[in-house]
Design brief:
- The complex is a heterodimer of chains A (414) and B (255).
- Chain A is built from 17 helices and four strands.
- Chain A is mostly helical and 414 residues long.
- Chain A has a domain of 270 residues: ABC transporter involved in vitamin B12 uptake, BtuC, CATH 1.10.3470.
- In chain A, strands 1-4 form a two-stranded antiparallel sheet.
- In chain A, helix 1 packs antiparallel against helix 3, helix 6 crosses helix 7 and helix 13 crosses helix 14.
- The N terminus and C terminus of chain A are likely disordered.
- With 255 residues, chain B is an alpha/beta fold.
- The longest helix of chain B is centred in the middle third of the chain and has 21 residues.
- Chain B is globular, with a radius of gyration of 19 Å.
- Chain B folds into two domains: 164 residues, 3-Layer(aba) Sandwich (Rossmann fold); 72 residues, no CATH class.
- Classes of the chains: A mainly alpha (414), B alpha/beta (255).
- At the A-B interface, helix 9, helix 10, helix 11, helix 12 and helix 16 of A face helix 2, helix 3, helix 4, helix 5 and helix 6 of B.
């Protein structure tokens, strides 16, 4: 099974991840890069115009972080020796949860919809892969698009009638969804899901004839998908589609009145997020080789919800950091057994009190003006030149008091 | 030729008749003011036109099409844009992004093009940023494109709302108390701005309490009281209309 362990890794997937993330304008990164970002942008949401994103140093540090991360298996083997596979497994689990949390971020973070049933779509993806592989003999990679579409399709059907619900109402319904899916799986629906025992013996994925088996293989496989996810969702976020979701989150009424079809975009955000969770399900099924309904319980959904809220709604960097903290960090404190969860819970409570926007909250999007605008703006008359915060000096501004001097209406005109 | 016409439009909230059988028209290219004491139903009329609420009865035609019962985003796509009485900008987003929200309905890039950043999508993004900056320049806010909308001065926020509405490429622009809370200088600038908007062949319909402003900027004035249209005509006619004078002197204690 693990005959490939000593074999040197092909550098190609790691490189792909590196390039992909580079082009994602340094969204991806290791913890090192994240820490750096945390220092730079601590609590400056309001005045973000010259964020660290534009500085070349930041880009270099991020690239360096990705490079170091790409060699993590080798670094780990010199650091921890024989327990390398264990720690790689932890990192892989973090990676898988990162994909899931990033997909939830599309729904919860960008569109602001309180969705706590994400494990349901994860389950649909995993079971689609397992059933297609075990019953129909499909290869894992062939099941991936089907699992993605299946999860997306089910999301479309389920979300259609509930998409107009707000906040807590939507939350309750999505909890219902995850329970329905779990119970359906436990009851061996259509005789396909194996009941509470689940499905056993799912094949390993193979890419271009290369079988992905060891934790090291999965490390490159999963984190390439993470990089790709970050890149695609970064593009999506900074597009017409992504902006529409931001408008909806800020003010649904105003968005609708500016011509955004709000229910359609909410539905689309939901479907995209759910479909991506289905894709994560494929990876999960082939990594674990065994799936059962217990894996997709409500608490998994809560965990994903926590990652997004803790990291910072709408911020991919925040979600990445959140996954490491929520999934990875507890592994370091295994020695404390049950107490670690107590500490973790307490830390969450404290965090939410002092930093409700999350550890790395999302920043203003960065736009590049078309050529020529820099000169045009430079020629503007004095009052337009703004201070560092983009605020106009108060002399030209009005006092924000309602109706100062239009009190007698008739006299003026009559 | 009338760009907008209402016929016997009625809207009740519970027992309260907010708009009672209002019939009126707005001429293409005109600047029309809708005035009346507080609670006369002016904003309700605006909400009915823009689709935020549905009329119980009556018909609304825009450019010859019935727009009754359409959802707000469809009505925006047809060419009616609005601003709000209380400013409803996307406070946390940048000035440029706020204007880009208006451009949304004139763009075509879909999910796949956005997800994969296809060349057509990138081209459209560049064009749309250019256009949004053009609108910002038009209202005099281009220099503040990076600022967070919520950090702008009050008058600038009002003008940003207008830029955002203009970005939808409207044929009819509906302004709900655009001069509310503005000082004299800002009101003067707003008047200039409305004249510039008119030159772009955009019809303007506005609610305003500042009579001096209404009388100087509007070609036509509609007067409402208790959900009923009590007068319409040129500013001159309105000022001499006994019904209007009575409505104002008798009822308006101006907050």
């Amino acid at each position: 099974m693990t005959q490939n362990n000593g074999h040197p890794q092909p550098a190609q997937p790691a490189q792909a991840a590196g390039q992909a993330s580079d082009r994602a304008d340094s969204q991806a990164g290791s913890q090192a890069a994240n820490n750096q970002a945390a220092n730079n942008q601590a609590g400056n949401r309001a005045q973000a115009p010259n964020g660290p994103k534009s500085s070349p140093l930041y880009g270099i540090l991020t690239a360096l972080g990705i490079l170091i991360f790409a060699f993590l298996p080798m670094i780990l083997s010199t650091l921890v020796g024989r327990s390398t596979p264990y720690w790689l497994d932890v990192v892989n689990t973090v990676g898988l949860y990162t994909i899931l949390a990033l997909s939830l971020n599309v729904i919860l973070g960008h569109a602001g919809m309180f969705h706590m049933g994400h494990a349901a779509f994860f389950a649909i993806g995993a079971y689609s892969t397992a059933i297609l592989n075990l019953t129909y003999g499909w290869s894992i990679m062939a099941t991936m698009p089907v699992a993605t579409l299946a999860a997306g399709f089910v999301a479309l059907i389920l979300a259609w009638p509930i998409i107009h619900l707000r906040g807590d109402y939507l939350l309750i319904v999505t909890i219902g969804i995850v329970e329905i899916v779990r119970i359906a799986l436990t009851n061996n629906i259509f005789g396909l899901t194996g009941g509470s025992n689940g499905l056993v013996g799912i094949a390993r994925p193979s890419l271009f004839g290369f079988r992905i088996t060891s934790p090291k293989h999965f490390f490159y496989f999963i984190w390439t998908v993470v990089g790709l996810t970050i890149l695609l969702f970064h593009w999506l976020e900074n597009s017409r589609f992504g902006r529409a979701r931001k408008f909806i989150k800020e003010d649904t009424v105003a968005a609708e009145n500016m011509g955004v079809n709000t229910s359609r975009y909410k539905l689309m955000a939901f479907v995209v997020g759910a479909a991506w969770a289905g894709l994560a399900g494929t990876i999960f099924a082939s990594r674990m080789r065994t799936i059962s309904p217990e894996t997709f319980v409500f608490s998994e959904s809560v965990l994903l919800f926590t990652i997004v809220i803790l990291g910072g709604k709408g911020s991919q960097k925040g979600v990445l950091l959140g996954s490491f903290l929520v999934i990875g960090l507890p592994e370091f404190f295994r020695g404390f057994e049950d107490k670690r969860l107590l500490v973790f819970g307490a830390a969450l409570v404290v965090m939410m009190i002092f930093r409700p926007q999350g550890l790395l909250p999302s920043k203003q999007a960065h736009y590049k003006l078309p050529p020529g605008w820099a000169d045009r703006l430079a020629q503007l008359p004095k009052p337009e030149t703004n201070g560092p915060n983009g605020k106009r000096p108060p002399n030209g501004g009005a006092p924000p008091v309602a109706k100062p001097q239009n009190a007698p209406p008739e006299e003026n005109g009559a | 030729m009338q760009i907008l016409s209402l016929s016997s439009v009625t809207k009740t909230f519970g027992g309260l008749v907010a708009v009672a059988g209002v019939s009126c028209g707005v001429d293409r290219g005109a600047v029309v003011g809708l005035i009346g004491p507080n609670g006369a139903g002016k904003t309700t009329v605006f909400n009915l036109i823009t689709g935020s609420i549905k009329p119980d009865d009556g018909h609304i035609f825009f450019s010859g099409h019935s727009i009754r019962g359409l959802s707000p985003h469809r009505i925006v796509a047809l060419g009616i844009a609005r601003t709000f009485q209380t400013i409803r900008l996307f406070q946390g987003l940048s000035v440029l992004e706020n204007v880009l929200s208006g451009c949304h309905c004139r763009m075509r890039s879909g999910l796949v093009a956005s997800l994969l950043r296809l060349p057509g999508q990138r081209r459209e993004e560049r064009l749309v940023i250019e256009r949004a900056m053009g609108e910002l320049e038009f209202v005099g806010l281009a220099g503040l494109w990076k600022a967070t909308a919520g950090s702008l001065a009050y008058g600038d926020q009002r003008r940003l709302e207008i830029a955002r509405a203009l970005a939808t490429e409207p044929k009819l622009l509906i302004l709900d108390e655009p001069a509310g809370g503005m000082n004299e200088q800002e009101t003067f600038e707003l008047r200039e701005l409305i004249n510039l908007i008119r030159k772009r062949d955009i019809t303007v319909l506005l609610i305003e309490h500042d009579m001096g402003f209404v009388m100087s900027v509007c070609d036509q004035v509609l007067v409402m009281e208790n959900g009923i249209l009590i007068a319409q005509g040129t500013p001159q006619e309105i000022q001499n209309n006994p019904k209007v004078i009575e409505a104002y002197l008798g009822l308006d204690d101006d907050d």
